[in-house]
Amino acid sequence: MASGAAIKRSESIAESMPEALRQSRYHMKRCFAKYIEKGKRIMKLPHLMSEMETVIDDKVERNQVLEGVLGYILCSTQEAVVIPPFVVFAIRPNPGYWEFVKVSSEDLSVESITVRDYLKFKETLYDEKWSNDENTLEVDFRAIDFSTPHLTLSSSIGNGLNFVSKFTSSKLAGRLENAQPLVDYLLSLNHEGENLILNENLNTASKLQTALIVTEVYLSALPKDMPYHNFELRFKEWGFEKGWGDTAERTKETMKLLSEVLQAPDPLNWKDVLGLPDTGGQVVYILDQVQALEEELLLRIKQQGLTVKPQILVVTRLIPEAKGTKCNQELEQINGTKYSNILRVPFRTEKGILQRWVSRFDIYPYLELFAQDASAKVLDIMEGKPDLIIGNYSDGNLVASLMANKLGITQATIAHALEKTKYEDSDIKWKELDPKYHFSCQFLADTISMNATDFVIASTYQEIAGRGFLADRKKPIIFSMARLDTVKNITGLVEWYGKNKRLRNLVNLAVVGGFFDPSKSKDREEIAEIKKMHTLIEKYQLRGQIRWIAAQTDRNRNGELYRCIADTRGAFVQPALYEAFGLTVIEAMNCGLPTFATNQGGPAEIIVDGISGFHIDPNNGDEASNKIADFFEKSKTDATYWDRFSKAGLQRIYECYTWKIYANKVLNMGSTYTFWRQLNKEQKQAKQRYIQMFFNLQYRNLVKNVPIPSDEAEQPVPKPTAKSQPTPSTRRSQSRLQRMFGA
């Protein structure tokens, strides 16, 4: 396939495409005629390619086209909208960079269009009257972000902290007076009313700079390991409070960083990114995240010479009808932590408290009141405001936005997976899907929270039993574990396996997910997938070749499952239609299992294709199953082949994915973006008013269309069983300006 080398660096796609079409005019005329033959529609890359194959049946001629500029353009196309006589391409040649071009099938003329025009063109497929209305409401957050730099280079992805450091540095640079916002921020830091870092004796940048020169001379004469409390009183007289370090050496190091920031701000460079292997989706992810954050906070507090105790609360819903679980317990300590708890708050309406569980698609009517109740509980238990709130998934992110706005604190957002990317064409077909999924509420919730947040962290089971048996236990096993829903595509994997006789001769299949009895599930998607799983097992006569195990909650047992599969020299397959991150992928690789994972989303980054694992196209089951079969055929003839991918997967995890990296980066981002909020307070307030308008005028009306269960009854909410101390504002760091907030 083409690499794009034929496109000149100075040319856009729109500039390169006309000549490429002219060179293959005969074939392209026929090809575009084929594209518009079926009228209005959206086409994905597989459709574009397959219809081209039917037109250009000569393989040599087809390869010539695909190896040139047109092949590069097609391979970079995310989707194409067909409205005869035009085909409009949404092309993404590089991460973060898009071009939109409109091609006429009549004369192959090419026109570059804006994203706004492309979206209007796309909307025409479903609501032509609405898309042509010149007075249609347009949401444009760029008009509010008048001082926020907009990053467009793909190299900026995942490096937001680094760029914020640069922008902040530029604001502080120049005259000493420019650093006054930094001094004001340091003066505002306190814990339970007790000042940290500075007091009012050092209330200007010039005073602070002079005092830092004096203290550096004083500290140089002290033993490096002298505890801070030995010189604490003198520092207090000079205007310094606790929080600089636990020893004379660390205090001197931190103060030197601040001196350098005041003299010449210098941003930090960041390497490596987040994560750690695990099984069980975002719930397990959050609990592991909490453990890592608590450990990092405890380390930083000790190194900064403080004795305060951190506190982390994981806020979720309380379900009175808990059915043997702890979901009706208001406060529960998190295993493996000292100062972290789960706080559960019930959903309620004006009629009372919701007694039972409801699907994530149906919870939007409850979120506004939940945010109010949760804010009050958090303030009560922490005895003060938290320093940072992190939202998870659409509902949690909206609640985090409402709470952060109410309490005036820094907000982080973890998307996990936006439903608009998981459900194909849901952005354009949302009206027909709305009765089932309520995407209008969810997409608006995502829009509100993603624009309200200060920074985004990007990056996503029950009893053991089983159905089926493995007749030939000597075969390797391909293994997959996920929720049973449409997006996770476990039934898709079962169908790939069932259709591929070569693969069935080579390996057995084991899947973990869902229930066997659909009546035990309350989730409508899961019920449909359970029924489909039973149908597929019968249709392809998979008895003796498949082992279906119910979803698991025992994480240790999950780890053993991976290792058992590795003992058979099997492989892990993650076939999701879209996966934002891919915790199970990391878990499998960390257990030495060669891994095949979707090329749609995060796993495409985790795995280096053909080196530490394999990418598979979830929309092409035949190709995916043959790729897996090829691997096991090679492993059968070459014993080192399986070992090579097993070791390469382990190496990839060790180099790039640890919770230590994650916790350190999140805490540094939290403190850095808190200062960034202070620098851009007026813009933040203007943007918040814009967001509140949409929340009040749109979201509140949309949630009225979501059905509310009728089993609500008044029930007193249990009172907290314990209280903990607030999370401190202390931080540790890695470099000048950034380290002033982060370390």
UniProtKB/TrEMBL annotation:
Coiled coil: none annotated. It holds the Pfam family SUS_N. Residues 9-123 form the Sucrose synthase N-terminal domain. It is an enzyme of class 2 (transferase). Residues 722-737 have a biased composition (Polar residues). It comes from the Eukaryota. One of its GO terms (biological process) is sucrose metabolic process. GO terms for molecular function: sucrose synthase activity. Keywords: Glycosyltransferase, Transferase. Residues 271-467 form the Sucrose synthase first GT-B domain. Its EC number is 2.4.1.13. Residues 471-638 form the Glycosyl transferase family domain. Residues 709-743 are annotated as: Disordered. InterPro entries: Glyco_trans_1, Sucrose_synth_GT-B1, Sucrose_synthase_pln/cyn, SUS_EPBD, SUS_N. It catalyses: an NDP-alpha-D-glucose + D-fructose = a ribonucleoside 5'-diphosphate + sucrose + H(+). Residues 159-246 form the Sucrose synthase EPBD domain. Sucrose-cleaving enzyme that provides UDP-glucose and fructose for various metabolic pathways. Belongs to the glycosyltransferase 1 family. Plant sucrose synthase subfamily. PANTHER family: PTHR45839, SUCROSE SYNTHASE 5. This is sucrose synthase. It comes from Prunus yedoensis var. nudiflora. The lineage of its organism: Eukaryota, Viridiplantae, Streptophyta, Embryophyta, Tracheophyta.
